[in-house]
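Final report, closing paragraph on structural work. Over the funding period we assembled a curated collection of sequence-structure pairs, and we close with a single example.
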Amino acid sequence: MSSDKKLTVKRLVIFLVLAFLPFCIIVPVMWSYFGEPIYASENPDTAVANYCVSVFGMMVPSIAHLLTRLITKEGFKNTYLGLNTKGKMGYYAASVIVPLAYSSLSAVLVWAIFMSGSGFGDTFNNFNMQSIGLFLLQFAYSLIVFFPAFGEEWGWRGYMMPKLMELMPKPAAVIVGGIIWGLWHAPLTVAGHNFGVVYPGYPFVGIGLMCLLCTAMNAFMTLLTEKTKSIYPAAFVHAINNNLSMGVMFTFFSNEESMMKLGGLSAVEMFFPYIGVLAVIFIGSMILLMKKEA
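Its predicted structure, as stored:
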């Protein structure tokens, strides 16, 4: 291994240690303090703690990125902080349109798989001003969610992925990076985030699903980052995905019967159609990522 690659490995290891350590400490401490998995708790006192842990946690990869550059005296070239919109607006548009599209298609698949007996029109044509208004409000809230989303993206796509792509081919880097990103969520998943704690195979099934989800999304967000040399499109995807995926679902299923059926599904069940749609996004993103610029 060349000296340059050894330095890249060193920087990547330092970054990952700094990125992983806070959740590995904070989540068990919070669990011990409250005496139960904090994200599966019905204790209202955990709500503020959960929010603070989540928001702080999303900022950790950027902090790790910054500290790694300072510790290893890397400097601040190739930070992906420029907008670089010239000739790249299609990628910026895709960062908003694609997550809305795959969330909507996932809702259709949930209906097709889990809501037998409910007609398509009965399920989806009962939009009302309240549900649409709530969706638009949630969409606007994505602007606030953008900042913690940027906190993750400047770490994962702005630092980890370029380092991985220095060390291995792009397809391998995307898969390895996705698995790393999924495992980073493991302390949260064990504590009930996303899936709760009552499902077959807890917590390993949940951790595995997060790795699949993160790998699929990593392909799309790495594509946007590499094509624009900017972190902002990936941050838009992250903000909309985190804030609006369920919002789209609840806007579509706006009648009482559909909402009752939706409420009867576990988070794990609802994730399978979602990951199925993202698998298509993954394949398309990998093809475009490997395509050489004309």
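Residues 80-290 form one domain. The two ends are 32 Å apart (CA to CA). We thank the funder for supporting this effort.
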